[in-house]
Amino acid sequence: MVGNSLGTLFKIISFGESHGEVIGVIIDGCPAGLKIDADLIQKELNRRRPGQTALSTPRSEEDKVKILSGIFNNFTTGAPICLIIENKDVDSSKYEKIKNILRPSHADFSRLMRYGEFADYRGGGRFSGRITAGFVMAGAIAKQILSLKNIEIIAYAREIGGIIDDKEYDFKKIKILRDKSDVGVLDSDNSQKIIELIFQMKEEKNSVGGIVKCILDNFPAGIGNPIFNNLQSDISKAIFSIPAVKGIEFGAGFKAARMKGSEHNDPWIIKDGKIKTSKNDAGGIIGGISTGMPIEFNVCFKPTASISKSQKTIDIKLMEETELIIEGRHDPCIVPRAIPVIEAMTAVVLLDHLLMAQKIPLVLEEK
Prior knowledge:
- The protein is about 25% helix and about 25% strand.
- By secondary structure, the protein is an alpha+beta fold.
- The protein has one domain: Chorismate synthase AroC (Chorismate synthase, AroC fold, 4-Layer Sandwich).
- The strands form 6 sheets. It has a 5-stranded antiparallel β-sheet with strand order 1-2-3-7-4, covered by helices on one side. A 5-stranded antiparallel β-sheet has the order 9-8-10-16-11. It has a two-stranded antiparallel ribbon with strand order 5-6.
- The longest helix is centred in the C-terminal third of the chain and has 22 residues, at about 335-355.
- The protein is globular.
């Protein structure tokens, strides 16, 4: 397969399959001299780990990170870093029974058209959300470097199943409120409503999607490139690499189509001796380059495609129409577990752009 790498200077290479031996990531271009906090990597993995609550898939994986290379005496060496987790709670029997049945809204048909019968179909193989564990490991490394510049990233669930959580809070309070909710929303009343809705979807053998909002604080102005490798397009590419993502909007996003120029334009002001804008409908990026305002975007996730309701489909081997009830272990809503993945992929892109802008050295300060 091609297309499994992302980045220019800080490059990540994703590998592994849902039911293979391991899920992993290779990080090339990480600056030398970063003191690695392995507990932080594990903490980030735990945020997306399956089987932690009754709201997610019952697949129970330890997802214990193993560092294979690129780190010596707890510091990055500048060599490629290889991180893996093992797949232990694997049951491929359900997939053997339906390997010739096209699951609606899965990559089964497109995968067959691209790779024939050679691709791993167990659990979706390379097309499974399980591969995002590698994204999170890479993001955890990137976050540790970004923290040296006081750059923070936080994402939370803004909408799940049509229940909208649109209250505005300051950056520090968002994290406190989000971490109190099992579904990653900020309002406690909405959190309970969403939990009840997800349990209802499990009972009905159905699923719901939602929207994740991501905010970046303390990111400097002037970072990014014009045209094809601009900051906005690179963030978008990384986000669209996450399975189940169907859309992204920055700042006012699609609301801009219903606004006048006088409403959407962000007036420039001087505040505390710094150039800022009085509002942020641009979402912190203009011309593909950061403005110094908080970078803000929303990400749309479709409902989980694996549902246990009867659906019409095709037996590709017999070339006959049939019906399918998908068995196995699946999330009725993947949005809560996708929140750390959004943060991780954003961190990877931000660090790559900071390295390209020579804002971060290839060798960090000495021990």
